[in-house]
Amino acid sequence: MYIYDDKIRLQATLDMPAGNAERCPLVIVIHGFTGYSDEPHIEGVSRTMNELGYATLRVDMYGHGKSDGTFHDHTLMKWISNAITVIDYARSLPFVTDLYLCGHSQGGLLVMLAAALKHEYIRGLIPLAPATMIPEMARRGELLGVSFDPNHIPEEFAESGGRTLSGNYLRVAQMIHVEDAIARYDGPVLLIHSDTDEAVPFRCSEEAAKAYHDARLVMIPNDTHCYDHHLDQVLAAIREWMPKV
Length: 245
Prior knowledge:
Elements: E1 2-5, E2 8-15, E3 24-30, H1 40-51, E4 55-59, H2 76-92, E5 96-104, H3 106-117, E6 122-128, H4 133-140, E7 142-143, E8 146-147, E9 156-158, E10 164-166, H5 167-174, H6 178-183, E11 188-194, H7 203-211, E12 214-220, H8 231-244
Parallel strand pairs: 3-4, 3-5, 5-6, 6-11, 11-12
Antiparallel strand pairs: 1-2, 2-4, 7-8, 9-10
């Protein structure tokens, strides 16, 4: 299925809980930078939520997966617009009782921003290894393995993985202040992060957990950014936390 953000098609997958309840909560699940909605850790979260009785909506953001747009031209601003559109779509579904957000890496940062913008509609928030360092590093002039002059943004740059991004990605990132988003959301938050994450420092979740009004931080020992070794521990933490919320 597609959700339209103006004329941009966003590929989305709606998974219902067992028994197809007439009314139930829904969790929007967002992938990360270079990711897509069918990755094992994204599908794992969705499947676990379905087992707990929650519907899930997995969405490919602009320039990723099967959605419209190019990776080169994606920015957090475009992703924020996508997220607002997806939240409004989810709210329009007649069976939805409550909304939750879950996102990984850049998607984790995204859901933190979206929860601030739509705080009155979001019942709970689950950032997985949220890449909250993106804005601060863009302002500093060193991001994605590339150094640049933060006051003279290049027209485009190639990040360390060899993929090329528009300089607008950096310009937008510089204007985002995560601390303001955290201050605007006072609902329950579950942060899950590996202490050996090679892409996003564990301190990102540590600092966010301290700043949120009501947050729990679960550390996954000796794992990768996408939980290639201990995804079961991530899903167990979600199973424990969701019923309490």
